[in-house]
Structures are given as C-alpha cells and as structure tokens.
C-alpha cells in the first residue's frame, strides 16, 4: 500500500502512527503516577478517618455500657441503704445546726479520706447478711438462745436472731495513675462490715477494726462514731478503739470517669446546679475554683431524719472514653468523649430493716 494512500486518509494515518509506538512516554507515566498518588492519598485519608470514627464510636459504646453497669450497681447498693450521708456530714464536721454530724473523714481509712487523689463521694449504712460461717454457728447453737449466758464464745455478740449486720459503704472518685489504671479517673467501693468471714469453728468472732454499732445507746447513724453525750464538747469522744487500717479491699467499678466533670463555657471548673431540698456531696464550695472533682457526685435529701424516714438520692457520673483503644487524651484538660449518666434512688429508712 502506497504512502500516498495514508496521506490522503488522515484517520488511517493516525492509526498507523499509534501502531508504531512501543509504550508510554516518561511524561505520560509521571502524570499517571501523580494522579494515581493523589487518588490513593485521598482514599487512604478517608479509610483512616473511617477507622478512627469507628474506634471512637466503639469506645463511646463500651464506655457507655461500663458506666451504665456502674451506676446500676451503685443504685442497687443504695436501695439497700438505711442511712445516707449528705455533703454536710461526709467529710469535715460542720458547725451550727448540724453540730451532731461529726464528719466521716477522720474515721475512715487514711488512704480513702486523706489521699489528695481520692475523694469520698457517697457514704451510707446498709444491712447485710452475716458471713455464712457465722450463720452456721448460730444455727448450731440455736437451742442455747433462751439463756444468753450459756452461749459459747464463738457466737457471743453475734446478731443470730436476725442473721444480719450493719455495714458502712463508701464510694470514692480516684484519679491516681497507678499500675493498671487506664482512664482519667475511676470509682472505687469500700465496705466496713461488722464481721468478715472467719475460719475455725471455735474462733470467737472478731469485729472489724473501726466498726462501731450505729444504733447503740451511745451513738446513731447521724452522729457515728461519736458518743452522743459528748457532742457539744470541744473534743467529742469517739467510740472507735482505733481508726480502720489502710485498705486494699476497695475495688474499681469503672475506670473511665472524668475527674473534673463539670466545665463552664471557657473550659474551667463549674459548680453543680442547685436542687431544692437536696444537699450535694461532696459539698458545694463558695467558688468554682475551689470545687472538688465532679466526675462523680450525688444529691441527698432527708439526712436530717437520721435514718428514721426515707431518703432520696440522685447519682450523676460524668464519664470519658479517653484511654480506650484508639482514644488518646488521658492527660488532656478536657474530656475527649464525654458521657453523662444520672439515676434516682429512694431508700426505705430503718423501718423493718434493722439488724436486730
């Protein structure tokens, strides 16, 4: 076929030239690589954002579930309370009309009440069943109850007739970053029962150090553990032989609580709102800058009844998912993924719930 034929037919000439090429030029390859890189980078950014969003949502869901389990546990615990302390009675001894209330700080284990990283928030008395070993002892000596003098030492002083005892429970907000700590702060539970499980059939029951009967002739829930006859003295008499020792038995309910909890528009500490008829605990301070941590706080109503009537308790937790896999920011000033929960509980007072 002659060359002139291709010159007369332009489209055939173009096809002929294309068939003579062996590949792409360097410029074409560079352009293709740049375009491909831009598209790949965009897709990579999108994938990373999707993974991060999925991680944050999973962290939020897991934290929400943990906090809900924690607040439900606390609510069930408080429903069994016979007396709940409010912010005026929990830490320091107030003055004025509430002089009878001693403040519990100096009567709790030091690592709970004297630790700058640990703030007692909720304290109450509840009625618990005796340890099984003591119930078995009571059952084995049931025929001797008619004459208390004949009771053996192994059950002497044990409330066998009711099979129950009073226990002091304290929930705290703890922000120590110790080994095993993951989140910004955590809620811990401490319990001081009258007795603990003790082995040996002949061992006399030992009352736990620091435990004092809150319904004895010398004291009551409101004034515990002070002798009520010395309340007006400059140095009221404590019925505790000694303060409870440092405890390691307080366990963690949840590890993802925000320590500060409440913030104003500028990101500074904020005070909890006032609920008419309720006392907030820890106690509300005169200024926001002096406020205690509010990642976990409660409102209590009816403390002045000294356990004779029902009390109402509002529990609030300000959580944060910081520390979860894929969620950094444990040391930031503000929560990364804030979560707020609230529940209300009505206690039933002492009526029909006394230990014996």
TrEMBL record:
PROSITE patterns (alphabetical): PROKAR_NTER_METHYL
Transmembrane residue ranges: 26-51
Highest taxon above the source species: Bacteria
Keyword Oxidoreductase: no
Keyword Ligase among record annotations: no
Entry-linked InterPro entries: N_methyl_site (IPR012902), Pilin-like (IPR045584)
Keywords (A to Z) from UniProt: Membrane, Transmembrane, Transmembrane helix
NCBIfam families assigned: IV_pilin_GFxxxE
Protein name in UniProt: Prepilin-type N-terminal cleavage/methylation domain-containing protein
Organism listed in the record: Leptolyngbya boryana NIES-2135
């Amino acid at each position: 076929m002659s060359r002139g034929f291709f010159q007369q037919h332009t489209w055939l000439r173009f096809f002929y030239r294309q068939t003579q090429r062996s590949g792409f030029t360097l410029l074409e390859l560079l352009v293709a690589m740049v375009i491909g890189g831009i598209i790949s980078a965009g897709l990579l950014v999108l994938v990373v954002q999707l993974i991060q969003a999925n991680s944050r949502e999973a962290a939020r869901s897991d934290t929400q579930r943990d906090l809900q389990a924690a607040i439900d546990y606390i609510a069930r615990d408080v429903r069994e309370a016979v007396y709940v302390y409010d912010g005026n009675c929990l830490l320091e001894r107030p003055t004025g009309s509430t002089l009878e209330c001693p403040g519990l700080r100096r009567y709790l284990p030091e690592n709970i009440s004297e630790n700058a990283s640990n703030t007692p928030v909720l304290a109450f008395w509840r009625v618990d069943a005796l340890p099984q070993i003591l119930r078995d002892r009571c059952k084995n000596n049931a025929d001797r109850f008619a004459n208390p003098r004949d009771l053996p030492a192994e059950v002497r002083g044990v409330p066998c007739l009711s099979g129950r005892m009073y226990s002091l429970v304290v929930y705290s907000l703890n922000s120590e970053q110790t080994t095993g700590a993951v989140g910004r702060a955590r809620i811990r539970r401490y319990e001081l029962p009258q007795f603990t499980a003790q082995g040996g059939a002949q061992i006399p029951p030992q009352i736990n150090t620091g435990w004092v009967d809150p319904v004895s002739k010398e004291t009551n829930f409101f004034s515990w553990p002070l002798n009520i006859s010395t309340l007006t003295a400059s140095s009221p008499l404590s019925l505790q032989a000694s303060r409870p020792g440092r405890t390691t038995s307080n366990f963690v309910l949840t590890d993802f609580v925000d320590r500060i909890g409440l913030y104003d528009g500028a990101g500074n500490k904020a005070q909890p709102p006032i609920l008419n008829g309720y006392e907030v605990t820890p106690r509300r301070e005169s200024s926001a800058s002096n406020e205690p941590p509010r990642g976990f706080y409660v409102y209590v109503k009816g403390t002045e009844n000294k356990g004779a009537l029902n009390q109402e308790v509002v529990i609030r937790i300000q959580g944060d998912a910081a520390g979860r896999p894929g969620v950094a920011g444990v040391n930031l000033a503000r929560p990364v993924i804030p979560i707020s929960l609230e529940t209300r509980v009505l206690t039933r007072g002492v009526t029909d719930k006394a230990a014996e």
